[in-house]
Amino acid sequence: MSTEPRFLVDPYKEWVGKEAIPVHEGFGLDLLELDVAPWPRLEAKGAFAHLTGRGDFVDMQVIEIAPGGRTAPQRHLYEEVVYVLAGRGSTSVESPSGERHSFEWQTGSLFAIPLNGSYRHYNGSGAEPARIVAVTDLPLILNVFRDEDFIWNNPRAFPDRFGGGRQFRGDGTFLPMRPGRHMWETNFVPDLRTFELKEWKARGAGGSNIMFVLADGTMHAHMSEMPVGTYKKGHRHGADFHVFAVTGEGYSLYWWEGEKELRRFDWKRGCVFAPADRLFHQHFNASPEPARYLAVAFGGLRYPTVADKRATFMGMDVSVKEGGRQIEYEDEDPRIRRIYEDELRKRGIPSRMDAVFQPA
After folding, report:
1. How far is Cα 350 from Cα 357, in angstroms, rounded to an integer?
2. Taking burial as the number of CB atoms within 10 A of a residue's CB, which of 5, 87, 192, 220 is the most buried?
3. Is residue 150 part of a domain?
4. Is 0.70 surpassed by the pTM of this model?
5. Coil, strand or helix at 141
6. pLDDT tens digits, residue range 3-48?
């Protein structure tokens, strides 16, 4: 046994090293193009995707299931939100009472595994692999408890997390709040590409959104849409928001407060990025169709959990000049509009921003 003192230990990173599958890093990644390798724990292929702005709470686990294949049965004391990148299949979840719920998913589906529920994923195609990504709070849980047996072999049941069986069928409950905070409570969304969103004028340019409450969990998810020829207002928040392109294509600009350089990340379906803590960023639709994106993070509108996440949800459509997290159009760097108009001209797409805001 080593007598050397241990310090600055990260149990999660140590565990990742033992799993011996690829680890991909960067500001943003194309998850459909990532290399994966056999992952004995899941009896499927997998990889970790660690983004620069992932923060201390969450990770991404990319899982590829072979044609006609299935994952090994899983159960764990951390939450996960699953987004289907490609393919079709099904998932079977067993409740604490022994009742089984099965639901079929496809490209664009979103679902959550209730805390410590037993589950298994199945590829419904005999010809094509299925690729999904799970955003989880494993880094937080593993770094706090430092006990793998406690996390993966814990008999504790959480029956309240399962909800009714209809929530595994794609049904849900709309919880009206106010624009930007309307919620849909469920465990499974069959297709994010067609899900009905609610108008959110304060966020800019005729956009819309919905907040998801999945399996009554602590993990957060929301989806927003930008109409053709428009872009969102600049904003910032804490780390760990993972932003997935669902439909359309475009780009996001990002910069630190007081910084002159505007950096850019181009995205399309399958891409994801995570802005760092307090990094200003702004999303632009550059396609001839509405662009939707999904954001997944730790701490949601129902259970913010940490003070910064509570402040984000309170101030996400409030001007920074009033103590909020948003830059209004009239206060943005003039270069931002020019860059966007130039991009649309290259693509032959008319801008609709004059109908929203005309610079002085």
Report:
1. 15
2. 220
3. yes
4. yes
5. helix
6. 789 899 999 999 999 999 999 999 999 999 999 999 999 999 999 9
